[in-house]
Automatic annotation (TrEMBL):
GO CC entries: cytosol
Keywords: Cytokinin biosynthesis, Hydrolase
InterPro entries recorded: LOG (IPR005269), LOG_fam (IPR031100)
A GO biological-process term: cytokinin biosynthetic process
Protein name, per record: Cytokinin riboside 5'-monophosphate phosphoribohydrolase
Domain of life: Bacteria
Taxonomic source organism: Staphylococcus caeli
Pfam families named among the record's database cross-references: Lysine_decarbox
Main enzyme class: hydrolase
GO MF, one annotated term: hydrolase activity, hydrolyzing N-glycosyl compounds
Originating gene: yvdD
Amino acid sequence: MKKIAVYCGASKGNDPSYIKEAYQLGKYMAEHGYELIFGAGSIGIMGAIQDGVLDHDGTAIGVMPKMLDEKEITSTKLSELILVDSMHERKHKMAELADGFVMAPGGAGSLEEFFEMYSWAQIGIHQKPLAVFNINGFFDPLQTLLNHMIDEGFIDAKYKKLAPLCDSKETLFDTLKQYQPLGVRTYD
């Protein structure tokens, strides 16, 4: 496992610790030989992780749809920029390149991208590890929702550990390394 796709926000959030911890995540990745696969943005959480990687001689590969490249702040510091034609191609390319998936704080786009990988794991499209970087308990409400979905029978109970919340970068990568596929979804 060398290449990690990180889904996260182009916003910085209200608490400065989000940016600080995102930068530290990037630094950790570079220092431990992990390559960053991400949405190619130079601002917010995305930019902070990228800066942490690149400031410590790591590799940051950005995947950006051409239509967003014209509107958003695409990083000019990337190790490699891959331009694609659509958001669907972006997600496919990131999934293809990555050996594992992480979600860090972000908004609806981050959730959508990560949960496509989550659902793909459930139906057997991939068996790559997933984990959530839970900076400042950001994703605690999400875990409550997932637990509710499991309790109400909309997600198989075996998937409770599919995308665990990790409060530190060390725990995050230990979780990714120890991942065991949970098998495909069953229908009753």
